Amino acid sequence: MTVKIVSSLPGTGKTSWAIEKMNREGKDKRFLFVTPFVKEIERVVDACSSIGIKTPDEGRGGGRKKTDILNLLKNNENIATSHALFTAMDEGFINRIRGRGYTLILDESIELVSELNLYGGRGPYDEDSLSVILTREDMDYFCSRDILSVDPLDFAVSPSEERSLRLYRRVFNLAKMGLLYYINDSVLIYVFPPALFAENIFSEYFVLTYQFDLQLQKSYFDFFGIGYEKYYAFANDNGGYSIAPGEYDERLFLKDLRDKIHIVESPYINEVGDPYVADNGHTYYSALSSTHYLNHFDEFSEQLKKNLTNFFGNITNSKVEDRMWTTFKAYRGKFSKTRHVPRKEGSFAPMNSRATNNYREKTIIAYLVNRYYRPHTKKFFETKGVVLNDDDLALSEMLQFLFRSSIREGRDIQVYMPSYRMRTILNTYLEFGSKFPDDFSVER
User: Fold this and answer.
1) Is residue 38 part of a domain?
2) Residue 132 belongs to some domain of the structure
3) Count of CB atoms within 10 A of residue 168's CB?
């Protein structure tokens, strides 16, 4: 089965095309539409009222949406649901939907690979946290007693044929399905069931996204040998939207973006994100990364807060309702008392925001992170020769975040991005597009 990747700029009509397709075909075919946010689910349900799209409901499912979605599938209903519920589906879901002729439409990429610990769900987590340490101790116990085994080549976790884990039934079941990997004897990796993309599960697969080539989802498909074809969306001559094979031509909009994205280049407020020389004499470009926050936040936090106040209150002299900002989730509360930083909902956006229009009026953007892949995630993919590029992740997430703002409406935005590395990547993209020069390096 081949997945159709509809990859083009936010605002080019990908979701609108999907809505038109469901309205046109939904009385004869069955659709499962999956999107990150409740508001987008509501939008699709309202726009497709003629075909009666249902959403999983706890009331109908005896307190569990998971139970209700299985019932909806049994009744061959058209369904719109969330990423969170879809990624929680198990072998029972696969068996229920197999052969029913559903078309899957994924609005934006889902979390296909994640760290897992037995005491806190999916990560990422600080490797020194108690839950991660306990998970590591439990895995050592399971492996030393042949309850579980770990393949030395690809780190795949397998259960013993003779034993079961009564207290850790979930781990046993995930291992039995081939969805667990134990990397470097320290971190459990969970992968979304690749069987969902196999023959006879869905009749068609569509993924609506932007910058697919830069995403972890592409690496996941390559890792498991899942075929895909690229399409792009566009407004047709009939007042609607269509898709066509091929890749979206970034040159059509890059000049316009360069004119509308105004990046603050002040050395004073950007110094906090500059490269730094460590005690070993090596220059690092990881300032404002998650590790840098973890190890040095107390050292740079006051200056970063002052810079944020300066940007919102003085440099832009902006209104509160125009501001949008992000940092790592664990540090959001650290900025709660910072002057001029909006406290109410609707101003802070998760750094990996995508597929939402909630921030489309924002013109003043503060992006306080420097993004890298987790080392264990990279190690997992390397077992099959799939190499993850940190700059691809940085660019993909950054662009998705910026396109939540009013830039998607064609309006100018002002951006405070103190990380030297992230600014360099963004400026290079605005000049060359996502096909960076072969000799590109942030360190030059």
Assistant:
1) yes
2) yes
3) 16
Give yes or no for residue 303 having a pLDDT over 80.
yes
Total structural domains in the chain? 3
**Token digits of residue 282:** 């090596």
pLDDT value for 162: 64
Phi, psi angles (nearest 5°) of residue 243: -125, 155
Token output for 153: 């080549």
Let me know whether 288 and 217 are in one domain: no
360, 408 Cβ separation under 8 angstroms: yes
Question: The tokens of 150 are what?
Answer: 């770990």
Task: Check residue 165 and give its pLDDT.
Answer: 67
CA distance 420 to 286: 9
Report whether 85 contacts 33 (CB < 8 A). Answer: no
Contacts by residues 152-159 (CB-CB < 8 Å, ≥ 24 positions apart): 153/383, 154/181, 154/383, 154/384, 155/181, 155/182, 155/183, 155/184, 155/189, 155/380, 155/383, 156/180, 156/181, 157/181, 157/182, 157/188
Range scoring the smallest mean pLDDT among 58-67, 184-193, 293-302: 58-67
d(CA 105, CA 204): 8
pTM for the full predicted model:
0.89
Domain co-membership, 302 together with 384 = yes
CA distances from 222 to 20, 225, 228, 231, 443 (A): 30, 5, 9, 18, 29
- Token pair of 382 as six digits: 């390397």
Nearest to 107 by CA among 162, 39, 61: 39
Say if residue 245 is preceded by a cis peptide, omega within 30 of 0.
Answer: no
CATH number at residue 8: 3.40.50
